Amino acid sequence: MFQLRGHRAHTRGLPFLCTISFPKFAPDGNPLPGKIETIAQIVRRYLRRRNMKHWVYFTIAMIAALAVFLRVWANAPEHEKRQRLAQELELVATHFTSARREAFTILRVSGSEIGGIDAYLAARPRDLVERTGADVTLRAVGAVILYGRGRDDAANALAKRVSETFPPLTASRAQQMPMVRRVAIARVLAETGRTNEARIASEITQAWIDARQTDQIAREENISVLTDQGWVWKVLGENDLARADWQRLYDYHKSQTTHPYNMACFAALAGDREQALRYLDDAVDQYRPDAQRDLFSLDELMDNDPDLDPIRDDPAFIAMRQLVAAKNAEYDAFLERANETNSGPDEPEPSTSSAPTPSDPVP
C-alpha cells in the first residue's frame, strides 16, 4: 500500500519516486509483517538517496516483493479449496443432517460398500479429517445406516473398526460430543458389546430429548435423533424407552413408512396383534417404491423381520404383503415402459404417497 505525500517535478533517476512513502502500519492498525516491513524500510531508505547503486537495491527489493506476492497469489486456489474442505468436514463431523446425508450419498453410490467411506476420507487432507473427527462420525453414521438397510455384515465390520480405535467414553467426554456423533457412537458401542459406555451416551441424549418438544428437536438437530436413539435403547434391551421415542416420532410424522413400521414391530412383540396390524397398514399405505426402495425393501422386511413373526400368519398381514408386491410390480412395469421409450420418469405415476427424507431409514 503506497501513499503519495506531495509532488516533485523531477528527481535524478525516476520521476517523483522519492515522493512515495511506505506506511509502517496496516490499515487495521497492526504492524506490517516482518518481511514486508523490512522491504518497506529498504525502499524508504534508498529512495531518499540519489546514488544509482541504490536503485539497483530498490529494484531487487521490488522483485522480492513481487515474488512474494506471486507466490501467495499462486497458492490462493489451493488455500480456498482447503478452506472449503475444512468447512465440509466440520459439517460432516458435527451436523446431524449433513452427516447422514453425506453417509447416505456415499453408501448409495458405492452400493452399501464400506470402501466408499474410506475412499471419501482418503480424498480429503488427513490432518483436516483427524482434526474435525469426521472419520469417526462418518463411519459410525454409516454403520447405523447399514444396520437400517439390513446389511448387518457390512455394518458389523464398520462398527468393529470404529470401536477398536475409539477410546473409553466418559460422561464428560460424551457431553461434549456433537449430537450426531454421540448417538451414532452409542449405537456402535452397543452393537460391539461396550454397553456401559453406550448407556452413558444414551442417558445424556435421552435427557436432551426429554427436555424438548418434538418440533424443537427437529429444528435444533434432526427428527432422526428419535429414530437412532430408539434403536440404541432397543439394542440395549430397553424396549420401553425405545418405544417411547418412536411413539413421539410416529405422532409427529405419521406420513412415512418407517415410523409406523417400527411401531408395528413393537406392538407385535408386545402381543398386541390388532395394534400391530394397524401400524403396519399405515406403513404399507405410505410405502412408495420409487422413493424408498433404494433405502430399504419393505417386502423383504415383512418376509424376514423376526419382530413380525407373531402376526405373519394373519390374513390381514398376508393381504398387506400382497399389496406391497403389487406396488413394486407396478413401479417395475412403469420403469420398463420408460426405458423402452428412452425417457426417465419425472414423477412416477403408480404412487402418490409422501416420501421419507433420507434421514429416516428403517434401522
Overview of this protein structure:
With 363 residues, the protein is mainly α. The chain folds into 3 domains: 3-79, no CATH class; 80-250; 254-363, no CATH class. Helices cover 68% and strands 1% of the residues. Helix 12 (224-235) runs antiparallel to helix 13.
Could you give a short description of this structure?
The chain is mainly alpha-helical.
- In terms of DSSP E residues, the strand content is under 5%
Largest sheet: 2 strands, antiparallel
Question: How would the global form be characterised?
Answer: elongated
The secondary-structure class comes to: mainly alpha
Number of helices: 18
Low-confidence residue ranges: 1-22, 347-363
Q: How are strands sequenced across the largest beta sheet?
A: 1-2
| Total beta strand runs | 2
SSE pattern: EEHHHHHHHHHHHHHHHHHH
Q: Summarize the amount of helix as a percent range.
A: 55-70%
Distance between the termini: 60 Å
- Overall structural domain count: 3
Overall pLDDT score: 79
> How big is the Rg?
31 Å
